[in-house]
Amino acid sequence: MFMIDLPLDAARLMRFAHRQGHGQLADDDFGYAAHAWLAAALGELAPKPFRLLENRQGLRLLGYAGQPIDALRDHAQTFAEPDALNVCEWSAAAGKSMPADWQTGRRLGFEVRACPVSRAERERDVYLVAVSRAQETGTEAPSRPQVYSEWLVRQLTKEGAARVNQAALDLTGFQRVRSQRLSHASEGAKRRAVERPDALFAGELTIEDPDAFARLLARGVGRHRAFGFGMLLLRPPRQTG
Asked: Band of the pLDDT at 19, cuts 50, 70, 90?
C-alpha cells in the first residue's frame, strides 16, 4: 500500500466538476467533485480512502492506493482527458510505501475525518439516533462527543484490529457539510444535496492484529470513504512517563 499526495488546483477542480455536470448542487467540502475527478483521472487506480486538506498553498489530496505514484501519473497522462489531467500538478505529486509489516503492541497516534452515521431503515447521524432513543426511553441523552467517540471505537476495533486509548481520544472538530449524492429513481439517476455530520478525531491506538490493522488502513473508517471521509492519518504517539 502507498500513501499518495496530489496537489490540486481548486478552481480547475470545480471547473471540471461543472463541465461534467457534478457542480450544480452544494458541495461544501469538494468531496463529490474530488470523487468525480478521481474516477475520470485515475479510474481503478484512484486512492481510497482519501482526505482533502486546504491550506494557503491550495488543495491537497492524501490517500492510500495500491499502486505507486509513478503508476498513477502514467495512467492519468495516458488516459485522462485534458480538463481532468490539468486539475493536478503532477510534477509535484509524491508518494511513499507504507510499512508492509505492522507489529502487535505498537502504539500509534492518529487523526481521522469521519462521517458518523448509521444505516437501519435510512442513513442518520448516530448522535441523532442516540437522542431519539433517549427520548423514547425517558433517559438522559448522551453528549455528541460521547456518542461519536463510542462510534469511532467500534469502527477501529472491528476484527480485533486495534485497542483504542479512550482517555486520549478527542473530538477536535465538528460541522455539518452539504454534499452531492446520486440517487436512483424510477425516472433515472438524479443528484441531490444531502447534509452529513463531519467529525474530526485525534487519538491513540495499539495494534492488536497486524493483518486486520492493515485491512483497516486500506479500507478506511465508516461510510462515504469515496467522498473524502475515513482515512486514518498516522502520527507518533505521545511520550509516556
From this structure: confident
